[in-house]
Amino acid sequence: MAQHHIVSWKLYLGILLVLCVLTVATVGVAGHDFGALNTPIALAIAVAKATLVVLFFMHVKYSPRLTTLVLSAGFVFLLLLIVFTGSDYISRNWPITPAG
Amino acid sequence: MSEAHGGPLAHHFHDLDQQREAASLGMWIFIAQEILFFGGLFGVYTIYRNLYYEAFAAGSHHLSWKLGCYNTLVLIGSSFTMAMAVYSAAVGRKRAIVGYILATILLGAVFLGVKYVEYHEKIAPCFGDGPHTGCLVPGARFDAGALQLDGARAREAQIYFSLYFAMTGLHALHMIIGVPILLWVAKNAAAGLYTPAWHTPVELVGLYWHFVDIVWIFLFPLLYLIGHH
Amino acid sequence: MPTGFPLFPEQASTLASEVDGLYLYLVAVTFVFSVGIAAVLVYFAIRYRRRSESYRPEEIHGSLLLEVVWSVIPLGLCVVMFVWGAQVFFHMNRPPDDAMTVTVVGKRWMWKVQHPTGQREINELHVPVGKPVKIMLTSEDVIHSFFIPAFRMKKDAIPGRYNVVWFEPTKAGTYHLFCAEYCGTEHSKMIGRVVVLEPDAYQMWLAGGPVPVSPAAAGERLFTERNCATCHRADSGARGPVLGGIFGKRIALQNGETVMADEAYIRESILSPAARIVAGYQPIMPPYQGQLTEEQLLQLIAYIQSLSPPPAGTAPASPTPSPGAAQ
Amino acid sequence: MNSGEQDARKTMSSQAPLTLPKRHYLNADYGVRSWLLTTDHKRIAVLYLVSVTAMFFLGGAYAVIIRLNLLEPTGSLVTAETYNKLFTAHGVLMVFFFMIPAIPAVLGNFLLPLMLGARDLAFPRINLLSWYVYVVGAAFTMYAVVAGGLDTGWTFYTPYSTAFSNTNVIAAGVGIFITGFSSILTGLNFIVTIHTMRAPGLTWFRLPLFVWAHYATSLIQILGTPVVAITILLVAMERAFHFGFFDPARGGDPILFQHLFWFYSHPAVYIMILPAMGVISELVTCFSRKKVFGYGFIAISSLAIAGLSFMVWAHHMFVTGLSVYAAMIFSALSFLVAIPSAIKVFNWVATLYRGSISWQTPMLYAFGFIGLFTIGGLTGLFLATLGLDVHVTDTYFIVAHFHYIMVGGTIMGYLGGLHYWWPKITGRLYPEWWARVSAVVVFIGFNLTFFPQFILGYLGMPRRYHVYPPEFQVLNVMSSAGASILGVGYLIPMVYLAWSMRYGKVAPSNPFQSTGLEWRTTSPPPTENFAETPIIDEEVYDYASPPKEARSV
Hints:
Largest sheet of chain B: none
CATH superfamily of chain B: Cytochrome c oxidase, subunit III, four-helix bundle
CATH topology of chain D: Cytochrome C Oxidase, Chain A
CATH class of chain B: Mainly Alpha
Helix content of chain B: over 70%
Radius of gyration of chain B: 21 Å
Number of strands of chain B: 0
Number of strands of chain D: 0
Number of helices of chain B: 6
Distance between the termini of chain B: 40 Å
Order of helices and strands of chain D: HHHHHHHHHHHHHHHH
CATH architecture of chain D: Up-down Bundle
Helix content of chain D: 55-70%
CATH superfamily of chain D: Cytochrome c oxidase-like, subunit I domain
Structural class of chain B: mainly alpha
Structural class of chain D: mainly alpha
Oligomer: heterotetramer
Order of helices and strands of chain B: HHHHHH
Number of domains of chain B: 1
């Protein structure tokens, strides 16, 4: 891991600044109403921040592919949980056509 | 956490590379497990937020986004100091490791202190004979009036606060667990156990700490910033 | 109810034969595969039994063709199961429009039944042959499951929700009614019987006993008692929307969305009126959470369902009983 | 082909009297401390063996009372309250404390490092920790059972569990929560070990299928268990602090609990069956003396099962009022997961073709497994079929189906594996005659117990019934009679295996002439497993070549 690739502390400092800016940005956009886009925007910023932390602070950018795979597995299965559960809630009240 | 040995090679590994690779993979798998552990809560949150959007927005408006934002910055800062601790280990600046880890702990303590203030103002009114004005702990003493909600909305807001306490509580618990581990690593660092060739425990506790940071990065907008302010 | 030693349940509804057809198909598949596999296994085990310790059989790595064949054939059989099963399932979940609605409330440990004509029963359900019956199902406490094996029909009764299921009895007789979802100590005694009567016997059964009050009539009485009409009335100054003719229609809401005025929405609008306000009205109705029983709610719904549309010119909208009705 | 011309002397009897190796893991150290503080994966496996066996017989004892009670329609042996606590305890103990750890934590723990040519698992101390976590979880659960019991069923359905039951839900929940982490730690250890500790030359497609199966199992343990852990935690919070999550009276949705619960608990079925499939793959190939047919397909099908198992859970919920559209998706995916299971069965049968098939005890269990798992799997299709599931769900059909999978599948696999590796674990042979008798008794007893339950279920007898209509009695009596035979079938191996530890014949290092690295060391193996790290230069299941003997330590 980091043994093979030491990231400069300047990069860390840069990431820190970007993260702070994005935090302020997420509060900023919360002050405006984008309608249906409010949540996607907030989540997009959060995902961007998390990605920066994962790639640089956690060195995934310089790690073996297996690390990425393990991490993605966690997120993919979380997504399965939410999407499949959500599919029930979204379609619960859809009408049943008189088929069958 | 992983089987982080105090330095020399453990008997069942062939070399330090193998040992490091195993420890790192173990930590990542632990983190994947943590994603699903918190994920159950995020799943519950997603469903109820969509069912009970207005109650969630009302509950969210009652939280202090300023404190939330402040804490986010504090935690990001602690992630930075943690990353610097790993960096110091990698370049062999042994005293800097200790300094950065202590800074990380300090920032973590600030975060927990702010969290304590937030919890206190919601929990304190629930004790005593009442009236329990401002009590936001779900249950019989929950003061839905503080949120200007009634009927089913009041119950839905209790679900919001149930999730608020469960999610932030579990997150805080992870930080509290992290502190003694950080102290242990700091102690070993002070004893000079970590070298550029081998400092896996510093890296692993760093991964853990960054993960806890990431959870908060999602919790902040999801809990504090529902609906526009 | 059968006695002795049955091996196959009675068929007493139109759905029963559909489900049994599906069942026999799966039994046939199961039989062919399990007997076939067992036969081949036993044959190989005897035919190629070890005769010598030193014999080393020739290596066979595998066969792509075989793998494809024994993946595709079961997949084909499964596709048939899926499509057929989904058809039957949709049929089960789509009550005919002319079905009569019977409400059933589960409570530990009994089934409380009310007919559209008002008759009430506990742990018994009388229905006529040849008439589709739609069951509106809910629970007062924990999850129960309404199960009539002879009709091949089962549905959970969930607190706070309405589930719908239907059947059309085909054969007069008495059948088991079970609770199939574990609900506590006396779960196995939460049972009853379904009595299927010939139509004239059913009419006689209806005529017997005290004169009942239909759910809609009971709902009307509740509507008056709770002063709902103070606001929900048909003059232009009314504070609440007119309820006639709204049932089953889509209604515009204040937030710009629309909602189907079904049982669930009416229930929500009574218990928690502010949740989804009809366009053009104020959230002034108090919540009735905890003030009405499940049965009273079902009666109010039946009443609202029974109302005819108001004369033209009055905007139809959704329910919002009066603020003065709070107790 | 297999003409009988060769001389038929058995290898075992042809050798001079054997003695146990001088040093092995069992005599490396003595005393209670040496066991309780061990980090040797083999000793930890033995600790698990003792614990899960205790849990198995305890859970079995509850089943005995349940079956006795059901002899009569009026259920006069125990009260309804007691009956409910009995089936709950039976389910909780068997699922969480026997089935899930049985094969991975006992056989997997013992064998994975051996099969990989490693000295130990990657994290020996975490391995020991997982056993302690298991014991603490078991202690909480046993406390719940002893101090008044638990009556929610192993499924903990809300709102019954959070607002109505007045039994020890929280203690049992905490026990299951804790035990979950034992399972997670085991899975984590296995995956890291398989990735990083393989001996030189041991490429992925040279791994025994037992290892593949455990890899797939570990994936489920890691990705599924945390979800049930947090769910149980929420149930405990709702019950203890009246936080609202799932109780409709608090605005919650009880169906959401079921989604979260089955997100883990359906894949958990595969935690139980996949390792057994791994065992069967080893047995079939070894006792046919022939490389397993379609190695790659069996290996990959394990991963396919693990992945798909996470997308089928709502077939437990077709009558809850689940959206019919969501139900269709879950139904379709449930059929898909049947295909990799079918592939395994067909490949095992094909392996027998032109083999040299021995009818030794482990193979008898493998035969039993294939037959019973086939029936269990096919009856699973009934439950994936939407229109049919409605009638049979929550009846004895379900009970019969999952016992065919778990008892007919997992326990057959477990016992088969235990016999197969018994000489490796203990250094002694089990008595073959008794073992064959017990395998046959288990098979007969099992079918007599559970086959009538399919019929009962289709007739409509709901599960978890303390009393039942009289027309169901004949089938229930048959089932109870079968259960008594099954019980005897389980007690026999308990006795002779215990006996053989002291009096059994000393086993050679490779009694069944298997391939696989675990047979290249002594029986029992030394603490460090191998005198020197093995180097693998041959393909997996190379039964065509003469067997390799252990190098002396």
